[in-house]
Amino acid sequence: MTERVSEHLAVGEVVADQTYWVTREHLVRYAGASGDFNPIHWNERVAKSVGLPGVLAHGMLTMALSLRLLTDWLGDPAAVIEYRVRFARPVVVPDDDTGVAVRVAAAVIEVRDDGVVALEITVRVGDQKVLTQARALCRMPGGRPGLAS
């Protein structure tokens, strides 16, 4: 992952790329923090009884991982001024010590004169996109990022 924000950004440039591992322990902790104790997020038997392939990560947890990538890259959570996604497919979390790898990457799609950068975020498990149409507007620290020459 990029350690700090570049002074000059180019359209198409991947500015951050990180793999996050999600385990059943993470799901339990997220359930406690969010108050979402739906058993499909922790009980294999219940998840399968309703036709799911297994225990699923909370959609909002997956979305939060993609935001974490941006806030780590920017160094300031308040720099993310707009964010939207569509949930495309569930993240199945195996009952083991490893969990599932969720890969998140952000690429520049627009650089504005007012210091705002538009990013496309890709979120995948294996070769499958789990979030689609993920876009963010971010205010760059120090104002105008400029385009790379």
Structure commentary:
The protein is of the alpha+beta class. The protein has one domain: Hotdog Thioesterase (Thiol Ester Dehydrase, Chain A). Helix content is 22%, strand content 34%. The chain contains 3 helices and 5 strands; from the N terminus they run βαααββββ. It has helices at residues 24-34, 44-49, 59-74, and strands at 14-22, 80-87, 100-111, 116-125, 128-139. It has a 5-stranded antiparallel beta sheet. Strand 4 and strand 5 form a beta hairpin. The longest helix has 16 residues, at 59-74. The protein is elongated. It starts with 13 loop residues before the first strand and ends in a 10-residue tail after the last strand. The model has no long low-confidence stretch (mean pLDDT 91).
